[in-house]
Here is the input.
Amino acid sequence: MAQLEWSDALDLDLPLMDDTHREFVDLLAAVDGADDAHLESTWQALVDHTEQHFGQEDAWMAATRFASGNCHSQQHKVVLQVMREGLARAQQGDLKVLRMMASELALWFPQHAQSMDAALALHLRRVGFDAATGMVHAPQALPGALIHGCGGATCSDAAPSAPVADASRQAALV
Here is the structure.
């Protein structure tokens, strides 16, 4: 299984986001190292973290004029649903699916962090968003219209389905 380790390449210079991402990487490593007796509970901890992690980022996007249907939020929904489906399969005795999903997440996460999350972090810094308080200190920097893409150069309103395709690839495992 491909194991993901924290590296400077994943650091986005947004402390609360980086701390959350480090925790994700640590929990994914715990899944990678879990024996069969502990795999399901370790995966559940990863799912619980991911629900909070994605919810936090989605709230930040909502507070800073990302549209609720943007491809970043959509990818969060798809990945989290796939993770929940994996848990349901594990509860029926199929632990192999969790090991495959963990390997896929280890491949997916760096791309997601270095593209969509990096664009979000840049946007949050531009508008002076304080993640701890939810305050926007530079409201004049907020976009005039809702951001419908992911906020990055590779994602636009014209091509919102491309990032979701990566997450859909994971759904095919289930």
Q: What stands out?
A: Strands lie at 129-130, 135-136. Confidence is low (pLDDT under 50) at residues 156-174.
